[in-house]
Design a protein that fits this description.
Shape: globular
Order of helices and strands: HHHHHHHHH
Helix content: over 70%
């Protein structure tokens, strides 16, 4: 039976192989599949999300400025295939976080995600659960809630045709009847985001805390966009 030290060494060797493959792929512009295989290995091997090297590698792969524009579609499709096979809450959460970061990094990802959704290629996590322990079951509940928020965020972009995370002042420039149409969409997104408040064991998990740091930033921007829209609506109604 392998000792804990041997197990750690095996993980380290695996991570080193992953990093070498990703670097060679980025530098040489090789086939995109090795990069995705490496990303999947990262999801399984990495202990933490906050790793600048892996984050940069992923964002480079899906960047609209990349010479290979088809990387966006390929990467996202491959990530969702990995998500569909996830059996543990850590793999599911890390995969969702990669998708979330790509979504925030590049508008082209939002359009491609809508395309994948319309083709039925985004797996539903409505029934996802990790029964390996009572804590894992609790974490699974939060993962499902987080997945629903990302779905609502994508739907918001689909309806509004812009990313509220990038432009909170847009509602200041809208007129009636556009404001009454768009404000409920933003309010529904805010409601979905607020349900991401963790409970039970999830309240103390450091991986979930990392994701919450991102959603907290988005909640502030969303609240600003809604407030600006409401003030603009009140001003236009009172002056009409």
């Amino acid at each position: 039976m392998a000792t804990s030290n041997q197990h750690g060494l095996i993980k380290a060797i695996g991570a080193l192989k992953c990093s070498t493959k990703v670097v060679l792929t980025i530098v040489n512009g090789d086939n995109k599949e090795p990069a995705i295989v490496s990303v999947f290995n990262i999801v399984l091997l990495a202990h933490k999300f906050a790793n600048s090297f892996w984050s940069s590698a992923i964002l480079i792969a899906v960047s609209a400025s990349s010479p290979r524009s088809d990387h966006v579609a390929f990467c996202l499709h491959a990530l969702f295939k990995r998500l569909a096979k996830a059996r543990t809450w850590t793999v599911a959460l890390k995969t969702l976080t990669i998708v979330h970061r790509a979504l925030r990094a590049d508008p082209s990802c939002q359009r491609e995600l809508i395309n994948l959704r319309d083709r039925g290629l985004i797996p539903s996590l409505a029934h996802f659960r990790d029964d390996s322990s009572p804590q894992a079951w609790n974490y699974s509940v939060w993962v499902r809630t987080y997945a629903l928020y990302l779905e609502e965020r994508l739907e918001c972009f689909h309806i509004l045709k812009y990313d509220v995370d990038r432009d909170q002042s847009r509602n200041r420039r809208l007129d009636i009847p556009h404001l009454p149409e768009q404000l409920p969409v933003l309010q529904e997104l805010l409601h979905r985001l607020l349900t991401c408040k963790p409970e039970g064991a999830a309240l103390y998990n450091h991986l979930i805390h990392y994701v919450l740091s991102t959603t907290a930033d988005e909640s502030v921007k969303l609240y600003i966009a809604i407030t600006v829209g409401i003030l603009n609506l009140v001003d236009k109604v009172s002056s009409s």
